[in-house]
Structures are given as C-alpha cells and as structure tokens.
Amino acid sequence: MARGYGMALLAAISVAYLIHSSSAQTTFTVGNTTGWTVPPTGAAFYSTWAANTTIKVGDILVFNFATNIHDVVTVTKGRLRCLHRKQSHIFRHPTPPVRITINASGDHYFFCSIANHCSSGQKLMISASDASSSPGPQPTAAPAPKPSTPYSIF
C-alpha cells in the first residue's frame, strides 16, 4: 500500500512540474552572440536564427545593439518593406537593450530603420505559438504491476 502512495506522489510531482514548465517564459537574445546588427553572414542570418528558435506566447526577445547605430522597429506584415517612414511603425525602440515580450500567437515582424540596414538583412520575422498549444515532455508511465498469484506472499 505504501508503494501505491509513493507512485501517486511521484505522479503528482511530475504533473506539477509539467504545468510549471509549460507556463514558464524563456528569454531569447536575438542573433545569439552576434546580437542585433547588420548580418555578418548575409541576409538569411536572422531568418535562420528564427527557424532554429521556438518562440511561445510569454517569451521575451532581447535585442542587443549599439546606441545610435541601430534600433528595433515593430511593424505589421504589410509594413515589412524596409520603409523608413515613421507612419509605417507600430513602435520604434531606439535605446538598447530592447526587451519585447511576445503577447500573442502568430507572426511578429521587426527591423532596423537606420540607413540601409533592413535591406541588408537586419530584419526578423518570428512565428510565436500559443504556450499551451505544444505539449511539454510527457511523463513516463510506470510499469504495470505484475499480477499476483494465489501463492504470492507480498
């Protein structure tokens, strides 16, 4: 009987961990150690970074860049044309580091509005999923107990 309680306790702890880990936010540094700059390896740099990064609602993007050299502009898909007009921006973040919490699922668009940085590849599209839409790690099922026989002592 004590073994049954132990298994139930283990199962309850596992479920609590899964619930906690699925709602935890993750902070991502855009571009990793390169940061937010004109891509050194070509225009596909940030799209490659995004393709290898799973962003969920509640996660935080951190844009690290040099003051007065870059900025981060939040735009809608229809405005992601490397425009420098102020009316195309949802919001402009000129002072680093910029921390943006992803508050909705779907696609999110960012670029640098300085000079020709955007057309040189300093732009990013991320696709965020709902935090509850992708399952976390599943607990391993405990092995089924061996059937008892009439001759079993335990």
Automatic annotation (TrEMBL):
<dbReference type="InterPro" id="IPR008972">
    <property type="entry name" value="Cupredoxin"/>
</dbReference>
<feature type="signal peptide">
    <location>
        <begin position="1"/>
        <end position="24"/>
    </location>
</feature>
<keyword id="KW-0732">Signal</keyword>
<dbReference type="InterPro" id="IPR003245">
    <property type="entry name" value="Phytocyanin_dom"/>
</dbReference>
<feature type="compositionally biased region" description="Pro residues">
    <location>
        <begin position="136"/>
        <end position="148"/>
    </location>
</feature>
<dbReference type="InterPro" id="IPR039391">
    <property type="entry name" value="Phytocyanin-like"/>
</dbReference>
<dbReference type="Pfam" id="PF02298">
    <property type="entry name" value="Cu_bind_like"/>
</dbReference>
<feature type="region of interest" description="Disordered">
    <location>
        <begin position="128"/>
        <end position="154"/>
    </location>
</feature>
<protein>
    <recommendedName>
        <fullName>Phytocyanin domain-containing protein</fullName>
    </recommendedName>
</protein>
<feature type="domain" description="Phytocyanin">
    <location>
        <begin position="26"/>
        <end position="130"/>
    </location>
</feature>
